[in-house]
Amino acid sequence: MTHQNPPSIIALDGPAASGKSTLGQTLANALGYLFFDTGVLYRAITWIALQQHLNLQDETAVTKLAQDAQIDIRPPSQKDGRAYDVLLGERDVTWDIRDGQVDANVSVVAAYAGVRQALTDQQRRIGMRGKVVMVGRDIGTVVLQEADLKIYLDASAEERAKRRFDEILARGEPAQYKEILHNVIERDRIDSTRAVAPLRPAQDAVIIDSDKMNASQVYELVMGLCK
Ligand code: CDP
């Protein structure tokens, strides 16, 4: 790893609902960097595929969708807890891509090599400009291997499911803990066993187990690593 001070390219990976987005956002704000949540792209493709009633097992069709999709991420237009707007053409899909149907299907879509190729190219082009906190599963291992700082944020499945459960309730939506736990475990299984760019810490990543840490403790720890 090259050691820039503060690091210009920060890669933040880890399993579902481990707190990557919260950490990534606060970190990017504090450093004046771009926050790029790459999961949004995989979620958006999955949402379009579901809207179009595409057979998600049809790798060719889903890949074509990923190659053609025009996904736009813009500064937040509303104060409803969002960190950014996600737009597909004119349509605001910021919250649509967080629904249970997308959660249940996104890992299947994200396992396709062609989908990853299409989306990774875009991520890399933006990431290589620097001053960026990029969040995902394969940022430190594939997308931005030259990142100056790599963090792998982990926590037990139960703790992560609890955090996601609280998050959904806070949005005023119904949530079932058991269903969320099941989804988190299943997504991790698919994400970490896929052939292309599986979820795993980079060799030079700092691994943080956040089970017994709150968001601000994790933030302080990572900020310390940036200095
Ligand atoms: O926020 P949460 O941790 O639940 O998920 P996310 O970061 O929005 O990612 C959703 C899904 O997209 C993951 O479960 C992966 O299947 C996929 N993903 C990926 O394969 N590679 C990335 N760099 C980011 C997300």
Secondary structure topology:
Layout (H helix, E strand, L loop, with lengths): L8 E5 L6 H12 L2 E4 L1 H13 L7 H10 L2 E4 L10 E4 L2 E2 L7 H11 L2 H15 L4 E5 L2 H5 L5 E6 L2 H14 L6 H17 L12 E4 L5 H12 L1
Parallel strand pairs: 1-6, 1-7, 2-6, 7-8
Antiparallel strand pairs: 3-4, 4-5
Helix pairs in contact: 1-9, 2-4, 3-5, 4-8, 7-8
Bound molecules: cytidine-5'-diphosphate (CDP).
Cytidine-5'-diphosphate binds next to helix 2, helix 4 and helix 8.
Catalogue the unreliable spans: none
Radius of gyration: 17 Å
Secondary structure tally, helices? 9
Which H/E pattern describes the elements? Answer: EHEHHEEEHHEHEHHEH
The biggest sheet amounts to: 5 strands, parallel
Q: Which distinct ligands sit in these coordinates? A: cytidine-5'-diphosphate
Please name the fourth-level CATH homologous superfamily. P-loop containing nucleotide triphosphate hydrolases
What is the C-level CATH assignment?
Answer: Alpha Beta
Structural summary, described in words:
The protein is α/β, with parallel strands linked by helices. It has a single domain (9-221), classed as P-loop containing nucleotide triphosphate hydrolases (Rossmann fold, 3-Layer(aba) Sandwich), CATH 3.40.50.300. The chain has 9 helices and 8 strands. The chain has helices spanning 20-31, 39-51, 59-68, 100-110, 113-127, 139-143, 157-170, 177-193, 215-226, and strands spanning 9-13, 34-37, 71-74, 85-88, 91-92, 132-136, 149-154, 206-209. Strands 2-6-1-7-8 form a 5-stranded parallel beta sheet, sandwiched between helices. It has a 3-stranded antiparallel beta sheet with strand order 3-4-5, with helices on one face. The mean pLDDT is 95. The protein binds cytidine-5'-diphosphate. Cytidine-5'-diphosphate binds next to helix 2, helix 4 and helix 8.
